[in-house]
Write a structure and sequence with these properties.
The chain has 11 helices and no strands. With about 230 residues, it is mainly alpha-helical. Helix 8 packs across helix 10 and helix 10 packs antiparallel against helix 11. The radius of gyration is 27 Å and the shape is elongated.
C-alpha cells in the first residue's frame, strides 16, 4: 500500500503538451494545393466525379472548393492551364526556327526537351481522359501545337530540302507526316502510363532513332506528296 502522498501523486492526470497550431495557408497556396490534388485525381479517375465527390476525394469541403472554383468546369480549366499551358516553353519555337543551326540538331533539342514534359504520367492520362469526356480542352492544346510547332517544322523541312510551297491538300498531307513523328513519341508515354507496359529506359536514344528515320524519309515524302 502506498502512502497518502503517493496515492495523491498517482491520481494526478498528466496534462498533454500543447501542440503547435496548424498554419493557415494563404489563399494562393490553398488554391494551388487544391489544383495539385485535382490533377492527381483527374489523372487517375478522369472527369466523371460530381463536385461533391471531387471535393471529398481531394480532401476539402465542398463550400471551400466552391470558394475557389464555382463549378467543375472552372477547376478543369485551371488544371488545363497548370498541366499544359504553364509547362509550354516559348523557347521551343525559337529553337526550331533558329536557322543558324542544322535542322536535325534543332529537332533533336526540341523533342528531347518536349518529351520530358509530355511523357509525364499526369500529362498523358489527363490528356486521354479529357479527349474522351471534356470536349474542347484538347483541341485548344492541339491548335497551339499545330500553329507553333508543326507549321514551323514543315517550313524548315521545305527550306532544308528545297521543296515548293504546298497546295492546301498537300499541306494537310504534310501535317499528317509530322503527326507520324509526334504520335510515335507520344505513344511511348501511352504504353507506360495508360497500358502499364514496359518502355525502353533510354528514352533519349529512342527519340533520336525516330528523328533519324523521320529526317531520312522527309525528302522523298515531301516530293511524293507533290506528285
Amino acid at each position: 500500500m502506498g502512502t497518502p502522498a503517493t496515492k495523491k501523486a498517482s491520481s494526478r492526470v498528466a496534462t498533454p503538451a500543447p501542440t503547435a497550431p496548424t498554419p493557415r495557408l494563404a489563399p494562393e497556396e490553398r488554391e494551388q494545393l487544391i489544383v495539385q490534388k485535382a490533377i492527381r485525381y483527374f489523372a487517375e479517375h478522369g472527369f466523371g466525379a460530381s463536385t461533391r465527390d471531387l471535393a471529398k476525394e481531394i480532401g476539402v469541403s465542398q463550400p471551400l472548393l466552391y470558394r475557389y472554383f464555382p463549378n467543375k468546369q472552372a477547376l478543369a480549366d485551371r488544371v488545363f492551364e497548370e498541366v499544359y499551358l504553364s509547362r509550354w516553353n516559348p523557347e521551343w519555337e525559337e529553337i526550331l526556327a533558329d536557322r543558324k543551326r542544322p535542322l536535325a540538331e534543332r529537332l533533336h533539342d526540341f523533342y528531347q526537351q518536349y518529351s520530358k514534359v509530355i511523357l509525364q504520367r499526369d500529362w498523358i492520362r489527363i490528356f486521354i481522359h479529357a479527349g474522351l469526356s471534356r470536349e474542347g480542352i484538347n483541341s485548344r492544346y492541339l491548335t497551339r501545337l499545330r500553329e507553333r510547332i508543326f507549321d514551323v517544322v514543315l517550313a524548315e523541312l521545305r527550306r532544308e530540302f528545297k521543296v515548293a510551297a504546298p497546295t492546301p491538300q498537300q499541306y494537310e498531307d504534310e501535317i499528317e507526316f509530322v503527326w507520324g513523328l509526334h504520335a510515335a513519341i507520344f505513344y511511348v508515354g501511352m504504353r507506360k502510363s495508360v497500358y502499364g507496359l514496359p518502355v525502353p529506359q533510354d528514352i533519349e536514344r529512342l527519340i533520336d532513332q525516330k528523328l533519324h528515320a523521320f529526317m531520312a524519309s522527309a525528302p522523298s515524302v515531301l516530293k511524293n506528296i507533290r506528285k
